[in-house]
Structure formats: C-alpha cells, structure tokens
User: Fold these one by one.
Assistant:
Number 1:
Amino acid sequence: MKKFTEIASARHTWAWPYVLFLVLFVVLPLLLIFYYAFTTPGGDFTIQNFVKFFHTSEAVNTLIYSMAIAFITTVICLVLGYPAAYIMAMAEFKTPQVMALLFILPMWINFLLRTIATVELFHMFGLPLGEGALLFGMCYDYLPFMIYPIYNTLQKMDRSLIEAAQDLGANKTNVFTKVILPLSVPGIYSGIVMVFMPTVSTFAIAELLTHNKITLFGSLIQRSFGEGGIAMWNYGAALSLIMLIIIAATSFFDQERDHDAQKGGLL
Amino acid sequence: MTQTAMLKDKSLSTAQQEARRRSRMLMAKRIGGQAYLWLLLVVLYAPILLIFIFSFTQSKVFGNWTGFTFQLYENLFTGYDSTAQVRVDPNLYRAILYTVLIAVAAACIATLLGTLAAIGLYNMRSRARKSITFLNSIPMINPDILTGISLFLLFVFLNISRGFGTVLIAHVVFCTPYVVLSVMPRLMQMNPNTYEAALDLGATPAQALRKVLLPELRPGMVSGFILALTLSIDDFGVTFFTKGSNGLETLSTFIYADARKGGLTPELRPLFSLIFLTILVLLVIMNIRTNKHLNKSKK
C-alpha cells in the first residue's frame, strides 16, 4: 500500500493508464492495418493487395475522383467561408459569439438526418441527385469547419496592426492583402485540413446524396469490410493504408494546428 | 445596429457631406455583409427547418404534407401509432437508450482517463510529453473510417466479439484526446506550487487532489465532458465498424440502416426537432447568463 501511494504521489505516473490505453487501442490497431494490408487471408506476406488495387482501374479512378471531389469541396468552402468569417470577425455585433454559434448549431443535429433532409430539399425543388447534390451536401456539412478556424484567427488578430498599416498609408486593398490575409493563413490551413480530411474519407453521405449513383473511396473501403466477407479484409486494409497515407500527408500540411482552439472552441 | 447608425446620420445633419457619404457607404457595406451571413444561415438551416415542419404532419414519407397534426409527437411519446394501430419501431427506443448510455459512459471514462493523463503529462519531462502528445493527437487527426477499421481489425485479431463493450472502448478512444486538451490549459494557468504547498501543509495526496487540483481543473473537465458527450452522440463512422452484427444500434446507425431500407421512421422527425429546440434553449440560457456575468464584472 505504501508503495502504491509513493507511485501515485509522483504525478507523472498518472498518465500511465492512458498511455497503455493509447498503445493498445490506437497504436496497435494502426499497426494491424499494415499487417493485414501486407498479408493474405492465410497470414502469409504479400503485396498482392496493392497490385490488385493498381490493376483495378475502377478502384484507382474512384480514388482520384474522391480526391477531386474533396478538393473542389474544400475550394468552395474556402470561397464561401472566408468572407463569412471575415464579416463576422470585423463587424461589431452586439454579441459576436451569437453569430458564430448560429453557424455551429446545425452540427448538433445528426448529420445523416441532415443529409437526408438535404436530399428531400433537392426532391422538392425537382433537382436531380448527382454530382451537384453531392457537392452541395458536402459543402453544407463541412462549411462550419472552414468558417470556424478562420474566424478564430481573425478574431485573435491584433487590430492595432490594421490601424498601423492605415496610418502608414496603406489603402484598403493593401491592408487586406498585406496584413489581414497573411495573418489569417494559419486559420486557412486549419480550415482546409478540417474540410479536406473528412470529405476525402467520407462514406455513407455519398450514397445517401446520390442514391448510390456515385461511389467514393470511403464507400469502397466500407464495402470491402461489409459485403465482401473475410476474403476482402486484407484488400480493405490495403485501401485503408492508402487512405492513411493521404491523411498523414494532409496533416503535415498543417503541423501547428491548434486543436484546442478549434474543437474546444466549438462549445 | 443599422437603426442607431441611421439616427446618428440624422443628428449629424450639419456635418460635412463627405463624412455622410462615407458613413452611408460603410452602412451599405455592413448591410451587404450581414445579408451574406444571413443568406448562408438560411441555406444552412433549410434542411433542419424542413425536418421541423414535417414533424407536424403524419405522412410516412418525408416531404409529403398530409395536414397539420401532433400525431407523430404523440406516437413518439406513447410508442404506439394509434391511427395505423401499430407499435412504433421498438428499435428506435433501444437506439436512443444505447446512444445515451454509450455517450454518458464514454464521456465519464474519457474525463477520468483524460484528466489523469493531463496531470501526468504536465509533470513529465518534455521529451516524453511530446511523444505522448503526438499519440494523443492521432485519434483526432484520423478520420472516422480509419479509427473504425483499425479498431475493427483489432477486435477481429484478438477474437473479441463486437457489441456494447467494443463500441464503448471505441468512443473512449476518440473522446479522450479532447478531454486532455480541455484540461491542459487549466493546468498551465494554475500556480504549480499550490499542490506542493498543500502537501507541505500536511494534506495527503488524495486531499490535495480533491481540494486543490480538482477545483482548479473543473471548468476544463466540464467542457471536456460536454465535448465528449456531443462527439459520442454524433458519431457514425466509428460505431458502424465496431458495433458488430448482433443488433446493437445507436441513433446514427439506426438512421443509416433506415435510410438504406428506403423509408425513414417518421418519429425521427419530432425526435430531432425536440433535440434541436432543447439545444437552442440551452444555448440561449447560457448566452443570457454569460452576458449577465459580463455586465456584472463590467460594473
């Protein structure tokens, strides 16, 4: 018992349970993706799963298509979201946080239900469910993730810098391009990552929005684990590994991401 | 806002024309900006409004208006559809129950684990802290599908049958990092010597924890807990891969299965309308309270 209290009073040991938890449920599972990706269902080493992927033009095309959709979604969100974040941050609302909250509030409704409602909206206006619906639905779901980080960086920005630029003779365009825009770059990066990562990996949404007309890479992975049965798991793991590489590459894009400020700020 | 600007405009009738023109341009700009924000909000809220409107009609098909009625609300609360003389899908209630149970349990475990981890991390040497912080960030960066599949493979590999327990573990995995990050800033802000001082003054480590550390960390723990709760309730991807096939559903996976079958259980409409209204009311109350607080501290 005394030994236990000794250990407990050294406070760095308090993190040990969580470290163990992380190793068991985060590190080990990720290693298992590698393991399954490079083995046959029998457990022998193989690169056949990747060969199969690169030889199935349909699968490769789906990956390229998904990345294109994610890219376009990100661009649209940036174009729509930056002005919104800018207006919110610059305007002197009586209660600025209310506006920001209004943009986050829809996220409390289950996103699948919102997506289904969007489909219904398309039905009501007689619009076809295709690529347009897919892009609209994606932008609709992830626009708040673009607005919020940009709004945060703009709001934290030192306003006296703008005044200083004005005093030094900068016109409005110059103030924006040389002061405000460069200072908001970290927020833009975070926004891009926060929109691109979930859209490139999404499944379910695409099926619902297009009534199974369009398959994205995420759905391809999901299917190899669902309908494919055990024989497809290794192939699915290989696809997951490709996804993991894309995600890792994207996250390097935004290394100094301040999670706390963004996600914590959502409350 | 614009009204006061207009009043000012009138009272300054003696001011120079240039100043007036500028203020008018500024006003136009402000109105334009506001209009853009409201336009975005209208689009953002349109689907939710649709759910709300169609919660007041009885039609089984979402988007079909068959007259105003509170019938669906009645069905939701009684569990019995008196017009069609059938029970409301009992799986819906099980899904609600499991969603709440898993969210509360996962948030509690995550708050405990995350708070201890944050205290531990704070007292570590910087190299160990850096590598654990990196590990902690993996579940936040990883998209749902990868967290879900990697855990799915783990449970398959270890021959653990999937069900309530595996979903709970999975939810703790993606909730805890946010608790750690909510508690950490509180630790950074507090005076590191108070805990030692309590020990020197004769408190046992347990007393020092309860009377010194916890009160300081509580706001961070509360926001971490609420964040964990919302993340868990909203999750679909991770639950989908870890729930197994013995009938366990949360609201998300229930809706997904429902939508794939073709029809949406109509009682979902009043359910989510009520959830949305509750959150709206809570936020309004919270906002009023913080505003009051701000006003008080200003005085």
Note: Strands of chain B lie at 80-81, 86-87.
Number 2:
Amino acid sequence: MIKFDNVSKHYEVGRDALSEISFELAKGEIAFVTGHSGAGKSTLLKLILLLERCSKGQLFVDGANLGRVSKRQIPVHRRRIGAVFQDHQLLFDRSVGDNVALPLEIAGFQPDDARRRVRAALDKVGLLAKENVLPERLSGGEQQRVGIARAVVNRPKIILADEPTGNLDPELSTEIMQVFEQFKSVGVCLLIATHDQNLIDKFGYRTLTLEQGKLVRDQKP
Amino acid sequence: MSTNKKTRPGKLAILIDSHRKIARSCVQDLLASPVATAVTTLVIAFALIFPALLYLLSLNLNASLGQDYGPARFSVFLQNSLSDAEAREVSDRLQTLPAITSMTLIAPEQALEDFSENAELGDLLLTLPENPLPYTLVLTLDPDALEDIEGLRQNIEMEPGVESVQFDLLWLQRVQGFASLLNRLGLVLLVVVIAGLVAIVGNTIKLAVASRQQEIRVIKLVGGSDAFIARPFLYRGALLGLGGAVLACLLISVLLLALAGPVDALSQLYGGEFRLVSLTPLGYLGLLLLGSATGWIAAFISSWRNIAAIEP
C-alpha cells in the first residue's frame, strides 16, 4: 500500500531531513513511526500526502508512483488518504459536524448520506453529542478527535496520523487506537507517528524508528 | 410504484444543491460586511452607468434626427438671367463631373409651386410681380466625394452660369456623425470600464482569498481541488457584479424618468414628436448580464491565481 524505495528528502539548507528510507506497508497493516522530534517523522508523512516531494528515490502509494502525480492530480491523491494532523487543522467557523463532513462535501456526497456518515464517525470518537458545537468550544483532546473523525469519515484506504494521541489521556488514547484497529480489520493501512512509548509497547505493532532522518530500526512484532 | 422508497437525487441534483448552499453562504458573507459590499457595489454601478448613458445619448440623438437623410446633396442655384436652354447646358456640363451620381433640374415655376405649397412664405412670393426664383440643380453626391467637399463646392461655383452652391443638411450629417462618435466612444469606454471592473472585483476577491487563507489550506489538506475552493469566490464575484448592475439599472431608469417630463415639454415647444428613447428590457437584461459576467470572470482570474499560490 505504501512503499518507500530509497527515499531521501533534503531542503535547501542543512542536513537531509530523510535519507535513503526504504520500507513497505501492506494492506491492513498498522505501523508506528517513532523517534525524537526532528528525526523526520512529520516529513515522512508529508511526503506521502504530497505536501512535499522526494528529493531522491521513489515513493508508491496505492500503486501510484508519487513522482508521476502532477500538481493537478494532488487533490485526488489526497482524497484517498485520511490524515490526522498534529495541530488538528480544523475550520473554526464551522460546526464539528461540518468539519467532519468536509471530505464528503469535496467528494460530492449526497447531504443525507454525508450526515449519516458524519454521525457514525463522530460516534466512533465519542463526540456525537458535539455535532453542532463550534470547535473552539472543545478541549484540545476533543479537537484532536474531531480531526480523527474527519480522517476516517470517507473510509480511506490509508490513514496517516501525526501524534494522534498527543493531547489525550491514556484511556482515550487506547479508545482511539481501538478505532484505528477497526479500520485495520477492514483492510485499511495505517501509519501513526508518535513518541508515546507506552502506546507503542501496549499495542505492539510494527515500529519504524527514525534517527536524524535515517531509518535505524524496523521492528516487526 | 413504491412511494416508501426514497428517490435518490442524481449527481446533478447534488451539484445544484451544493451550489445553492454556496450561493446562500456567499450572500450571508457579503451581508456580513455591509459597508465594504455597498462600496464595491456602488463603484461597479457607477462604472457601468457611464458607457450605458453614452449609448443612450447616441440612441436619442439618432432618434431626434428622426431618420437617415440619405446621401449628401448640393443645391446649385443658377444665375437669375439664364434661359431654359442655358440652364440645361449648365446641367449637362455638371453631369460630367465624376463626384455626381444624379441630378435634378428644377425650373423656377416648379420651385415657386413647391415653395408655395410648403411654406407660408410662398403666398408672399406669389404676390411679387415676377418669379424671383432661379433655376436650381439638385446634385446627389458620391459619398467618396465628401472628403474634399469644399473643393468640389468651389469648383461648381466657378462654373459659368452658377450663382451659388449650398450644401444641404450638412449640419444634420454632422450631428449624425457626432452620434456615431458618441456610440464609438461608448464602446471604447465600455472596454475601459470592463478592464476597471476586472481590476476592482479581482482585488476584492484577492482580499477575500487572503482572509480565508487558513481555511483554504485546510481544504487543500483534505483533498479539495482549486476549482472546489474557487466556487464561493466565483459566486462572490458574480454577485457583486450583478448587484452593481442592478443598482446601475435602477439609477438609469430613475434618471430617464426624471428627464422624460422636461424633454417632452421641450419637444412640444418645437412642435416635434420626439420622445426620450429609454433602455429596452433587453438592454437592461444585457446590462445585468454584463455586470455579472464581468464579476465572474474577474473572480475567476483572481481566485485562480491567488488560490494556486496557497500551499498547505
């Protein structure tokens, strides 16, 4: 589903953000990406979302060589991926429900259908009661869960999550991971960037460890 | 036929529904900042009014002239002393000039008759002991000869037997020329105004895009295309243009209404049947279309450039 083939990313100045990364994630597989901040976790996710382009090497997502995806095709590529961002990236002038509905609106869903899916997604993250609330009235953890609901609402084949449990207490983190596991069981491929060692230990999935842009350990269960 | 089964709307219905939603939220947005919206609408309205008024002015000038007066003509008055044969001789000589397409010779008796029929002065003429009117030639000129009309006039005047030459309806043709100049000026102004409108609306759209930068970034992150993002801005541009055009139509009809009375009074003073020509319904519709299309195009150009520049 996701295949890194000797991928490097370097910016104009400084050292390589990522260097010669190679790994492959299958359908229905969950993997953690871990490492200190600045180790390249976010860059890795950005490459998959085409927020950045690889400097070297090749990256395949769902069979498509991302080097060959033109600028015009980027939106279509992103619609296949559900992404959870560290800083939530919510629209603060729209209700929680409308935020979660955004990917469906873009995809041209029928409003009734969309509403049903939105409610199902909000139910999964335990925020059904907050459907009509504006995001700024929510706590950081709740906003995080809105972002997760938005990432899963369109039933993507791939889910990327950047510190999805960063603002959540251990109990909620576990609940969120259980939501992710439901998606794994229907064949979704998940890549989760986290430095929450407890979470990694608890769930024991494959773990990719980055250090200064290099993949230093690929620990499979 | 089952009525329980809910009919699913087609793709088109979904699209229309989403457009309706966007249009509604766009109107709300515009009303949320009433001062800025009002100023922009006023500017657009005034910009649209000027070419429309010039067009109306040329329309009315033409209408007041009543008709097209046809090709230019000279009236050539021959010397009073000429006999019938001599007059015909002059006529034959002038006939050879290339600038003249046709010619009529009017005898003094005929002229007197015409005169007495047409003008009150005619009765006075009839009381005179002898006919004071000379032989007259009416020459129809080739339009190409108009360029050196003064030279031609002098040439004919120097012919033996010719007393004087008068260029009929010259002033009318000048007014007609002026009207078509106004018309042309209106067109040029229209082009200038459209360019100005594109700049004005484009700038407001640019500001609107800038104020929604964060929102656009988020939509791009979750896979919204530039076209999807541009939709509300296109509505905004078209609505601003339409609003300006509606205001322009209102102002023009108020102006025409205000002018109709005095113009009628003036026309009656001159015994004319002239009535103020106003914009036809089609003209109003055209103005509305022009306004909204210009707004849409301006928004398209501006949002296309400014949205593409935002990177998530």
Note: Chain A has a mean pLDDT of 91.
